[in-house]
């Protein structure tokens, strides 16, 4: 067998000339390509074939009986759009056990059910590492919502600014109202204690809903405790109220305003390139309205935020469009909290 070691090629250059060296290098490249193909590509192809012949499965256990229609499950990565067409195959073993066919991974599971003739939907995190595992699906009665309900409800804010243009728009994708283990792992990436506290407190509220249980509704109303707004209700836009609640809860300056754009007056300005988890992002929707949220992660085409009043809940959603500011929360000097 031909010796392809580098020192051999160098000796060939000295003893037999550059032509031999060129041929030697050519052989090395060919063998390198073959090695790469067999070491990486072939196993990938084999895995794909194996997945088709012997597909991976995970057994889902629901706490309550559930009637799922055909194509009643959706599976997506957390960063994919909520309307991702991934409709995995599944088999109902009983009214509480379903075998789902999908490769191992970390997912958002969307479930549809027929509830006395009304179609409802709910979400749950799903993570499994190998085929055949069993997972409990934790969906409470308050997690279900009518399919006909709007996917996005950013109600108009009470205050308007005549100087704000009216043709601004923002886009929200991948909206979800559950936090995954990957989301909580983001906390460990934050090196600033204030931003870490902001992110921790906000993630703990994900899923709180204005249309949920009495406790959840009371929680939403509590977001208004330190906002200067007369007689707020569950129908009042609370996107800014939620951020006020988080900031006050972590001892950081807040605005006491129900207007999202008021957050342009708090914190240190940061450019998009330096945006980090735990900072605030402010988007302008025109006519003085906007959305403000806590940055969870930065993606190529959007900022993933934790924001209130999105789909009637504290949700995680990826926002793009008319970004007008990013603010790094800065503690007021000589005070625990200021506004």
Walk me through what this model shows:
With 339 residues, this protein is α+β, with helices and mostly antiparallel strands. It has two domains: 57-146, Immunoglobulin-like (Sandwich), CATH 2.60.40; 170-328, endopeptidase fold (from Nostoc punctiforme) (Alpha-Beta Complex), CATH 3.90.1720. Helices cover 24% and strands 28% of the residues. It has a seven-stranded antiparallel β-sheet with strand order 9-14-13-12-11-15-10. Helix 1 runs antiparallel to helix 2 (18-53). The longest helix has 36 residues, at 18-53. The protein is flat, with a radius of gyration of 26 Å. The N and C termini lie far apart (77 Å). The relative contact order is 0.12. The model is unreliable at 148-166 (pLDDT under 50).
N-C termini distance: 77 Å
Total helical elements: 6
Task: Determine and state the CATH class of the largest domain.
Answer: Alpha Beta
Globally, the shape reads flat
Q: How are strands sequenced across the largest beta sheet?
A: 9-14-13-12-11-15-10
Structural class call reads alpha+beta
User: What is the helix fraction of residues, given as a range?
Assistant: 10-25%
- Kindly identify the CATH topology of the largest domain: endopeptidase fold (from Nostoc punctiforme)
Mean pLDDT reading: 81
Number of strands: 15
Described by strand count, sense and barrel closure, the largest sheet is:
7 strands, antiparallel
Task: Using the CA coordinates, give the radius of gyration.
Answer: 26 Å
């Amino acid at each position: 067998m031909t010796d392809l070691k580098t020192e051999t090629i160098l000796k060939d250059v000295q003893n037999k000339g550059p032509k031999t060296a060129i041929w030697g290098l050519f052989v090395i490249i060919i063998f390198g390509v073959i090695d790469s193909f067999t070491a990486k590509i072939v196993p990938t192809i084999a895995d794909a074939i194996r997945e088709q012949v012997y597909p991976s499965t995970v057994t889902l256990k629901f706490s309550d009986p559930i009637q799922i229609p055909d194509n009643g499950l959706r599976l997506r990565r957390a960063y994919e759009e909520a309307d991702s067409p991934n409709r995995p195959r599944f088999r109902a073993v009983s009214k509480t056990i379903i075998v789902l066919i999908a490769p191992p991974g970390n997912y958002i599971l969307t479930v549809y059910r027929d509830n006395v003739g009304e179609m409802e939907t709910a979400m749950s995190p799903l993570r499994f590492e190998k085929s055949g595992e069993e997972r409990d699906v934790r969906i409470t009665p308050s997690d279900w919502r009518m399919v006909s309900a709007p996917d996005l409800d950013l109600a108009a804010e009470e205050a308007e600014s005549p100087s704000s243009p009216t043709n601004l728009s923002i886009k929200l994708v991948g909206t979800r109202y559950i936090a995954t283990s990957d989301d909580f792992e983001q906390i460990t990436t934050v090196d600033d204690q204030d931003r870490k506290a902001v992110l921790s407190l906000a993630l703990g509220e994900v899923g709180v809903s204005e249309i949920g249980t009495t406790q959840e509704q009371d929680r939403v109303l509590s977001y208004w405790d330190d906002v200067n707004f007369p007689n707020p209700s569950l129908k009042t836009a609370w996107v800014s109220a939620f951020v006020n609640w988080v900031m006050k809860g972590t001892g950081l300056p807040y605005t006491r305003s129900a207007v999202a754009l008021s957050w342009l007056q708090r914190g240190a300005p940061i450019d998009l390139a330096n945006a980090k988890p735990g900072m605030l992002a402010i988007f302008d929707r025109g006519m003085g309205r906007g959305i403000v949220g806590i940055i969870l992660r930065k993606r190529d085409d959007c900022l993933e935020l934790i924001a209130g009043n999105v789909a009637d809940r504290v949700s995680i959603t990826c926002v793009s469009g008319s970004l007008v500011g990013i603010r790094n929360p800065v503690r007021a000097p000589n005070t625990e909290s200021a506004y």
